[in-house]
Write a structure and sequence with these properties.
About 75% of the residues lie in helices and about 5% in strands. It is an all-alpha fold. The longest helix has about 35 residues. The protein is globular and about 65 Å long.
């Protein structure tokens, strides 16, 4: 897969050029963020598996989202932390391309999964009597598989092309991870076709997923407005609020990074937005779903009470 004839054998990640004391501080901060991200998402997965009340398509997709959050953060944060306390902030060419692939694989899968989750909410609220028949176990598994396969194959072609690009120097990446955009710029070959492919792929996946999500929630809002009961309104909106919050943050950041023309904003600003998407979003997701979802809060409370009672025996 990798072109071993490349002159450059490793890249230098600039990351955040700060003094050593700040590097240590950043290491501690991102270590805390990473531990909270993993523990928070593992908690959601564990509680969903343990509590029968959460054995539904909505929470099955939420478990997939939590697993993707763990994997996406793991693709970026451990290497970042290593670089904070390392004098040599280098990464091999194969390692760099691998990190690039896995980050975009998990990220693209998450984009598609968010559209799938909006479909689940559409069926639950707009066609409630047929929800169990439509969103059965087989359909849920197939939709999850479509999300994972879509992420895998949509990213595969551009990254394979990148892996065969010649890198003749310089080898400095002005980023904290191997993002595909600065990686392409370091190639000494003509990359116009690849940049077009990357832009087209990003635009199609992001905008199609976003359009699908918007249409789903427009249909949900129209359906809710025709329901006379205010209590039903509140229940319907509460089940969608967490997903809308997560989708808004994710889509907004992704569109800003990979669709908005580079000339419109400085690369430093894009780097900051990438940091928010690559690190902080995966930390916030479990808290958003926990704080805004009564069923998850009840399940967490019952699980904690059960564990405490077992420990006190």
């Amino acid at each position: 897969m990798f072109n071993h004839s490349s002159v450059v054998t490793e890249f230098i990640l600039l990351g955040f050029p700060v003094v050593w004391e700040m590097d240590v501080l950043f290491f501690i901060v991102f270590l805390i963020i990473y531990v909270l991200t993993v523990s928070g998402n593992v908690t959601i997965i564990s509680v969903t598996l343990a509590d029968r009340r959460l054995h539904s398509p909505m929470y099955f997709f939420l478990c997939n989202l939590s697993f993707l959050d763990i994997m996406a953060a793991t693709a970026i944060v451990p290497k970042m932390m290593k670089d904070f306390i390392s004098l040599e902030k280098t990464v091999s060419v194969p390692g760099c391309i691998s990190q690039c692939y896995f980050y975009f694989f998990f990220g693209t899968t998450e984009v598609i999964l968010l559209a799938v989750m909006s479909l689940d909410r559409y069926v639950a609220i707009c066609i409630p009597l047929r929800y169990s028949a439509i969103m059965n176990t087989q359909m849920s598994l197939q939709l999850a598989l479509v999300s994972w396969a879509g992420g895998f194959f949509s990213v595969l072609s551009p990254v394979i092309i990148v892996s065969w690009l010649p890198f003749c120097g310089p080898n400095v990446i002005d980023h904290f991870f191997c993002d595909i955009e600065p990686l392409i710029k370091l190639s000494c070959a003509d990359t116009h076709v690849l940049e077009l492919v990357k832009f087209t792929q990003s635009t199609v996946v992001l905008l199609c997923s976003l359009l699908f999500t918007i249409l789903s929630y427009l249909s949900i809002i129209i359906t809710i407005l025709h329901i006379p009961s205010s209590s039903v309104w509140k229940k319907a909106f509460s089940t969608c609020a967490s997903h809308i919050t997560v989708a808004s943050i994710f889509y907004g950041s992704a569109i800003f990074m990979y669709i908005v023309p580079n000339k419109e904003f400085s690369f430093s600003l894009k780097k900051a937005v990438t940091l928010q998407t690559a690190v902080f979003t995966h930390l916030l997701n479990p808290f958003i779903y926990t704080l805004r979802n009564q069923q998850v809060r009840d399940a967490l409370r019952d699980t904690a009470s059960h564990i405490l009672s077992r420990l006190s025996e």
